[in-house]
Design brief:
A hairpin with a 2-residue loop joins β1 and β2. α2 crosses α4 and α7 packs antiparallel against α8. The protein has 2 domains: 300 residues, Aminopeptidase (3-Layer(aba) Sandwich); 150 residues, Alpha-Beta Plaits. The protein contains 15 helices and 19 strands. The chain is 36% helix and 22% strand. A 6-stranded mixed sheet has the order 1-2-6-3-7-17. The chain has a 4-stranded mixed sheet with strand order 16-9-8-18. A 4-stranded antiparallel sheet has the order 12-14-10-15, with helices on one face.
Length: 462
Amino acid sequence: MKRLMLAITAALIPVAASAATPEDEAYARALIEKAVSFKSTAKHGETPKMAAWLAGEFRKAGFKKEDVEIVPAGKSVGLIVRYRGDQSAGKAPVVFLGHMDAVEADPADWTTDPFKLVEKDGVFYGRGLVDNKYGVIDLTQTFVRLKKEGFTPTRDLVIAFSGDEETEMATTRALAEKLKDAAFALNSDAGGGSEGVDGKPTVYYIQAAEKTYATFELTIRNSGGHSSQPRADNAIYELASALKKIEAHQFPVMWNDITLRSFEASAANADEKTAEALRRFVNKPGDKKAVKTLSGATHYNAVMRTTCVATMLKGGHAENALPQAATATVNCRIFPGVSVDDVKAELARVAGDPKIEFATLGEPVESPASVLTPEIESAVIAAVRTRYPDASAVPYMEAGGTDGLHFRRAGVPTFAVGSLVLRETDEPNYHGMNETLRVDAFYAGLDHWTRIIKALASPAAP
């Protein structure tokens, strides 16, 4: 692993990229203000309006009509924009991901109007700023800037903005199917950097894998009866007994190159006991002493194995009646390479009650981990170190889920390399009230994608 990092560092690509001008910054500011104004949530349904507006911005910048496509799917739409290259690189396209939709926001809970960009005390307020409208407008202004410069890439570059990442991901599936011939995808919706309160960078994260999100319902039924005559097979008690067994169960320890590299890098900033355990695990994956220590930390435990946890309960129909049914919802985050069916079978075995009915909710998306190549990693590191010369880059596995799940499933290696660098004291509150983004962080990321693109698709690129 260390040899790979040294090789990549030595191969950093010094590709010139013009810095954002005041005019570029003003354009980006106007874009984010307009983007926040769209109520692109499942309830309000304005994502198609946002997609139409963005399509217009690309066409005004000189993109041909046939290269800007709105893709209807499910209850929303996606957007594809193709920046045609001269194909001199002889390489498949690179896809750039973002999502136009945002989670709901109740104006009564906010100190500002969630759908109006407000700047106060060096901070922007607005729903979707961090998740993921900044990523969308950052990629948009990058394509527009490069077009104005007259830049011709050596391979096709393709934007793919989904419209329902926060809900059913129907547009994501449609986009992934249309673009499955891509060499790889770079996602704006995760990854990114962190810095200390002094503004100095600590680390830049590259997301290269995501756990499978799967939810099961466990139900026990019987004929019930009157509460004055309790019976031995009470559905609530039996379900509770099964849940306690699931609570006590730990799935097998697992690892891949991504998690090992993440552990290796994390050791540098961990306390002495944790750092020792991380290094032991890296040197001897599965080391029992290391596993015992790391299992006690929720973050590292989640990285080492599949996890399942009860999240919801319902049961009974009257206070004076024995329950005829009891149901628990169990949410699992499954390590890449492990099937949903295998986890379901293991839960049934652990519960140990054949009367329990197991139902899988929805259609879980299983996707493999992506292999981070020197071509991609060197381009990202070069872009990051232009801003932060001493920053280290660390691949990691996401416990949550993004559009990348569907692209990986379609056979497109996907890496999240967002442009935002958040400070330890930041409170972005995405998905919560008063979502925020520091104004200086907003402007600092405007050259990020330009640098990556020129490292991957300019004549100087390998």
